[in-house]
Amino acid sequence: MDGRDERRSNHDHGADVLPPDGQDFPPGKAGAEPDELVVVLDFGAQYNQLIARRIRECRVYSKILPSSTPLSRILELKPKGIVLSGGPASVYGAGAPTCDPGLFRSGIPVLGICYGMQLMAHLLGGEVEAARRREYGRTTLRITERAGGPLVSGLPPETEVWMSHGDLVTRPPEGFLVTACSEGSPVAVMEDPVRRLCAVQFHPEVVHTPQGKDLLANFLFRYCGCLGDWTMGSFIENTIQEIKVRAAGEKVVCALSGGVDSSVAAVLVHRAVGEALTCIFVDHGLLRKDEAAGAVTFFRDRMGMHVRHVEASVRFLERLRGVTDPEGKRVRIGREFIKVFEEEARTIGDTRFLVQGTLYPDVIESGGEGSGKAAVIKTHHNVGGLPPEMKMELIEPLRHLFKDEVRALGLELGLPEEIVWRQPFPGPGLAVRILGEVTGEKLEILKEADAVIREEIAGAGLSREIWQYFAVLLDLKSVGVMGDERTYARAVALRAVTSEDGMTADWAKIPYPVLNRVSSRILNEVDGVNRVVYDITSKPPATIEWE
Ligand code: XMP
After folding, report:
1. Is 114 among the catalytic positions?
2. Is the pTM of this model over 0.90?
3. Which of 46, 97, 183, 485 is spaced 20 to 30 Å from 420 by Cα?
4. Is residue 417 annotated as a catalytic residue, yes or no?
């Protein structure tokens, strides 16, 4: 999880205004907490977000808390179950993270995973040792004792699981049955159904453990007695209800960018507070062709929302005049954005709440160890924060959701696929896709060229498999020949990448005929361009955006 460096998570909404990096979010101030909750205590493994996701896929709401969370706080949440996650430490190591042993006496079912298992064994009097050989990768799990083990109920006698551990439990604590083993782990699953405690040495949350979800479901439904009634519909209902109560009689404002997170957040809050919500669309003139007008029209006319379209492109161009340094552009745009937003918000009058599209990964990361050490590659526009004098309370209705859940929520709220599946777009917009100084003329060229690649990729049915595809206007001119005439005109680079999360990326292997169409259309339709090149660099070493 060290992707938080300079960029928080990969937001595709440019204009959201997040609190300054590292600032914690007020707990419980947004999307309502459903009745059935399973807490995941985070001991630092890479896969912890996956545990919460798998649990949610079983329609049980799940939330990750730092392992240091006091037992009293956990009990206040009245969880139906607690999962102790994996982690890189060794229970015997100095400073190893631990938990309050009272947890095991609380009567709440507990599932330990990997380090969580070793910790449970260690604290309850079992034996944990360093393995002679690290067990890493796929291995076969054999059920040894089915009768006493609800956790392994319904699993085949032998099944593949994914292990990654250096320590192992060699003797379970008293009262536990060993219900499965593997070649490297004599105690691969241990269960005490009386105290409702159980643990696994492998990782049920990863896809390499095909029966992992069944095992987690056994924990949720057989140990915890969950009902599994958490759905997007119930989430929407609870969240709207909570916002209604919290914001009753107050004015609410939202920075709408047309990106999926801010759009979904705004629509959800609008359902709760209606006319009391004013969305501010700061149009910095650096959006793609027809994008600003399209977004404003959609939210106003189709969703019936109150949207203020602040046309500020002249101001932004003014700020960008003569600026060629990428960081200089980013910082100026970020500052100007806040200024414009703030000025507009002031005219609304006494506004108490600000809506933000913060997602769950941001919340987890802001509560975790901020690395703070990573080099700043690019200053992200949406990390600027609000000026301190704007003392608004936050409504963050998505702060408990993962990105794919936000998409599902958007569709359920009636947002069209174009918004829900909109490709990521940087906050500073086309300014970081024009190398050198940004001018009105260059913006027009880039908008036209970019519209061509977007149309052609969508037309070829490739828009879902390609993470981002766009045009970049280079800061150079080259010689060409058009109808017997010499030309000396601009060059456009095409950038298209495949990626899982934007942190790493590969250049997209777009079929030649599609590339060919994009190139000839740009050359024919966009004045001032006589050369098109295709960027075949992965990230790293390049970044996705050119600036
Ligand atoms: P890079 O260029 O760093 O981009 O490889 C990774 C992802 O982040 C997007 N990006 C931004 N998103 N504000 C954003 O909300 C920004 O300032 C920003 N800069 C880059 C980029 O489009 C890619 O998806």
Report:
1. yes
2. no
3. 46
4. no
